[in-house]
C-alpha cells in the first residue's frame, strides 16, 4: 500500500519534496509618494502602509534595500489635479521627481511606474471624460505622453493600469519611437472592477467623483474574457502580463500561466491586505501565517512576480528561515 504520508513524516522530507517556494526575489513593493514636504501619513485602512513625501522616504527605501526586495512600484499623488491629469507628463511632476530620486540614491532598486490618471484627475477616472465615460482613444494620446515622460526620468519599467483598449500597442510604439525600445512593459492585462480596491482609493486619493469603472475594468464574473484581454496585450508587445486582484482570481493566474509564454505577475491588492491585517488585529487569525499562506497560493497558482504590501513583512519572515 502506498502511503503519501511517508513524505510528510518530518521537516527534512517536507523540505525535500516541497513543490512551491516563496522568495524575496518574487516581490515588488508598492510605494505612495505625495507631492509636498514633511509628509509621512499612515493609511488608516492599510496598517503599516504610508504616504511619503520625497524628503521623508529615505528610511522606507533603506529598509526595502536592506531586505533585498528587488523592485518598487510607484504611485504618485500630486498637489494639483485637472480634468486630463496633465501632471502625469510634467517633467517636474511628483512621479518624475521620485524616479530620479530613487535611481540616484538607490541605484540597485528596480523602479516600475504605474501609468494611469485616476490619482491625477479631478474626477478620479482613468482618462479623459466625454459623455460621462472615459474616452478610450483620446486617453491613449495622453498615455503616450505619460510613458515617455517616465522613461525620460529614468524608469526601469512602465506598468499601464487603465484598461484602455490598445494601450500596450500605443505604449510600445511610443517608447520605440523615442529611443526606449529596451524599456519593458508590465501590462495590467486582466484587471477586474473589484471591491477589493477600497483602501487603495484612500491611499491614492483616487475615488471616482461619479459612477464607477465598470465600463473599462473587467466584470468579476468573466473568466474567458481574461484570456482575450491577455491575448491582445501579448500580441501588442507586453513583456509581463499581470492579474489584479490576486487572491480571489487564482484561477485566472493559472489560466494565464498555462496559456502564455511570458512572466505572469499578480497584484495582492489593498483590500486583500487590509482583511488579513484586520482579522489579525482582532486575534481571529495568525496574521503572519495567513500572510505567508496567501502569498504562497499566488506563487502556486503560477505567479512569477507578486506585487504586495506585505513585501517587507514577508521578506523578514523568509530571511529568518
TrEMBL record:
Enzyme class: lyase
Entry coiled-coil feature ranges: none
Active site, per annotation: 191 (schiff-base intermediate with substrate), 244 (schiff-base intermediate with substrate)
Protein species of origin: Polaribacter irgensii 23-P
Residues given in the record as Mg(2+) binding sites: 229
Recorded family membership: Belongs to the ALAD family.
Enzyme Commission numbers on file: 4.2.1.24
Subunit structure: Homooctamer.
Binding-site positions, 5-aminolevulinate 1: 201, 213
Residues noted as binding Zn(2+) in the record, renumbered to the chain: 116, 118, 126
InterPro entries hit by this protein: ALAD (IPR001731), ALAD_AS (IPR030656), Aldolase_TIM (IPR013785)
Protein name in UniProt: Delta-aminolevulinic acid dehydratase
UniProt keyword terms in alphabetical order: Heme biosynthesis, Lyase, Magnesium, Metal-binding, Porphyrin biosynthesis, Zinc
Gene Ontology terms, MF aspect: porphobilinogen synthase activity; zinc ion binding
GO BP of this protein: protoporphyrinogen IX biosynthetic process
